[in-house]
Amino acid sequence: MSLVPKKVFFVSGKGYHKKKLAAFEQALRDAGIEKYNLVSVSSILPPYCIEIQKEDGLKQLRPGQIIYCVLAREESNEYNRVIASSIGVAKPADKGQYGYLSEYHDFGKRPENVADMAEDLAAEMLASTLGVQFDPDLNYDEKREVYKMGGKIVETKSVTAHAIVREEEEWACTLAAAIFIV
Questions:
Q1: Tens of pLDDT, residues 48-104
Q2: Can you list the domains of the chain with their CATH numbers?
Q3: Phi and psi at residue 110, in whole multiples of 5°?
Q4: Using CA atoms, how far apart are residues 103 and 42, in angstroms rounded to an integer?
Q5: In sequence order, what are the residues at sequence separation of 6 or more whose Cβ sits closer than 8 angstroms to the Cβ of residue 178?
Q6: What count of other Cβ atoms lies within 10 Å of the Cβ of residue 98?
Q7: Cα–Cα dist 77/80, whole Å
C-alpha cells in the first residue's frame, strides 16, 4: 500500500477560549479541519503532488478520516501576546522532483515576518537539495532572486495565521497546515 499523497491543500485558522484545548478546537474549526483525525508528518512535498483549492480538498474528505498533514501550531495565554503559525512551500520546476514544506511558529513577531521565515526555510531546504548556490546570510528577497535565476525552483509561498491574546485568562491558538490527500 502506497501512502504517497497525490494532492495537497493549505488551511489556516485561529481560535480563542478559556481552555487551551478548546482554543485549539476553535482554530481547527476556523481552518475547516475539525472533523478529521490529524497525523503530523515531516516536510516533503511529494513529486507530482498537485495543489488544489481548500474547498475542493474538503469535499474529498469524510468526517473521522485519518489525514496526514504538516502542521504549525502556536498557543499562548499571555495577555496581548502576538502569536503566529505558518507553512512555507517550495515547489521545484521539475515536477518529478520532491519539494519542501516548512512549519514555523513564533510569538512576538509580525505575521509577515513569520510568513517570510516559513517560506525562506522551505526554499532554502529545496535549494540546498537541488544544488543551488546561495549565501545564507542574504535576506529572503535577495535569496529569492538567486532561486529564480537558478531556474530550479518554480514557486515559493506561505500560508499564515496570527492572533493576539485578547483577555487575561484566555488562550489563543493559531495553526497553519498542509493537508495531504492520498
A1: 999 999 999 999 999 999 999 999 999 999 999 999 999 999 999 999 999 999 999
A2: 7-181 (3.50.20.10)
A3: -65, 140
A4: 9
A5: 8, 9, 10, 45, 69, 70, 87, 89, 101, 159
A6: 18
A7: 9
Of 92, 140, 97, nearest to 119 (Cα)?
A: 140
Q: Which residues contact 128 (CB under 8 A, 6 or more apart)?
A: none
Retrieve residue 77's grid coordinates. 495565554
Could you tell me the three cell numbers for 132? 543551488
CA 118 to CA 120: how far, in whole Å?
Answer: 5
C-beta separation of 68 from 41 below 8 A: yes
Per-residue pLDDT at 148: 64
- Categorize the per-residue pLDDT at 149 as very low, low, confident or very high, splitting at 50, 70 and 90: low
Pairing of strands 82-92, 99-107: antiparallel
CB atoms within 10 A of CB 82: 20
